[in-house]
Design goal:
The structure holds two protein chains of two kinds. Chain A contains 19 helices and two strands. Chain A is mainly α. Among the domains of chain A are: 104 residues; 94 residues, no CATH class; 79 residues. In chain A, helix 1 packs across helix 3, helix 6 crosses helix 8 and helix 11 runs parallel beside helix 13. Chain B is built from two helices and six strands. Chain B is 26% helix and 30% strand. Chain B has a single domain, classed as 2-Layer Sandwich (Alpha-Beta Plaits), CATH 3.30.70. In chain B, a hairpin with a 2-residue loop joins strand 3 and strand 4. Chain B is of the alpha+beta class. The chains are: A mainly alpha, B alpha+beta. At the A-B interface, helix 1, helix 5 and helix 10 of A face helix 1 and helix 2 of B.
Chain lengths: 423, 131
Amino acid sequence: MTAADIHAAILAAWRIEQPRLITSLSRMLRDVPLAEELTQDALVAALEDWPKSGVPERPGAWLMATAKRRALDHLRRGKMLTRKHEMLALDFEREQQAMPDFDASLDDDIGDEMLRLIFTACHPLLSRAARAALALRMICGLTTQEIARAFLIPEAAVSQRIVRAKRTLSESGLAYETPRGEELSERLASVLEVVYLVFNEGYTAARGDEWHRPQLCNEALRLGRMLTAIAPLEPETHALLALMELNASRSAARTDANGDIVLLMDQNRARWDRLQIGRGMRLLKQARALGGGAGFYALQAAIVACHARANGADDTDWRAIAGLYEELLALVHSPVIELNRAVAVGMADGPGAGLALVDGLVDEPALKGYHLLPTVRGDFLERLGRHDEASAAFESAAQLTANKREQEMLRRRAATAKNATQR
Amino acid sequence: MRFMYIVTSPQPMTGPTPALMEAMGKLAEREIKAGRMIDNGGLMPLQQGARVSIVGGKLGVTDGPFVEAKEVIGGYAIFELRDKAEALAMAKEFMQLHLDHLPGWEGTCELRAFASPGVDIGCEIKSPAHA
């Protein structure tokens, strides 16, 4: 094995164990940020030891023992040693003597523990970016470097974001517990929002050379699956996973062999992942069965499901999609959703009807600088034969996006429209 | 990356011990709740199934009795994992459970990466690139 292989093997073993390390230590220490830090220490210890001693037979147990030892040391040490901690440490030591086998002290309900951890990492006290970084770090086990690479931001910025977020959590003195009742749905919304943010950053990268960064999509899908497994009665967890699975099912068809963007209408639908579509459909059904058919994510999943069911643009039930957007608008008023509704109306009732709706949105402050507005306008103008105006719209859209692939595609469309004028 | 794990053994199937069942159940629960395991299951011997094959341009069905197979496929699992290193760690953990709870057993856990729909594996006819 090369050094790189060993490093990968260590990281893999640690990642599998990491959430349980954090939850166990959080219970011991009543301090999630500290638990996270000591879990990282266990990784560092493994990186030092295992290349010399080899990966142990039970890497999980080794990591757990090491992390717990660090936690005990911490409890014993200096200022932190309040009476409460002393008792905790004593209890823990007794427990260890009675049960030396670490495997035997496996959590009985991993689900509850994980849920508690996710709720802490995605606490509404933290900014969305901080929540995303913490979730990727504490729940998915990504390193700071990996998070930085995934979001295309400097490593120092990520580590600062994480340090600050952890300090906020420590100083707030939050109880480490699962919210109940009314608070639950509010807190859950804050979790789902972060998962969807991570997914979208991967699905349509805001910056960079690639349009699609599947790693982030996969992390989000994994978080989504985790949530449906540990909070199975919440319809929106199923709906969000449905939405992500259905969108991800198109991944292979969204770019061509050169990495250039292929738009939904032009995609080869034979390349859509049917298994994934099936999973998405079942999840949406589940969300509806739980009474959540009209939820924020369920409505969006229903829209994507309309596309997944259709064999092509002509075969798509655009009227149903326009109706679903209308329902969505009644739920959350958002100019972006209005823009999406305009696209569906344009497909159902013709480009003129769509353009009228889009033109009504041009002065919307929230859409200033949003490249999809001129993109959609350009599309309608093109179909109306107003090529000059279409070309100008695509050109201004190209100037507004920071993603290189998207820029290239918009410039191509601008050029095509321009050529059509000269014909 | 999606991986399929296939467990085979040259020994006749005797069924897992309760201790192994419990350990595997715990692992499966953890992996489902971690969002990594998509599906898993045990497979009955070929006696309960059948074989449909094509030889020399002819379709043939073998519906038992079967001569005792050299290798018995005992079960499978489908995981969604980050990379091969993670897949290997998972397979080792799974097999370690057998070593601990099923003394004397011998077998293999093979892990295979799924071909992703984006990667052509030779069965798709490419249409010429259009302008």
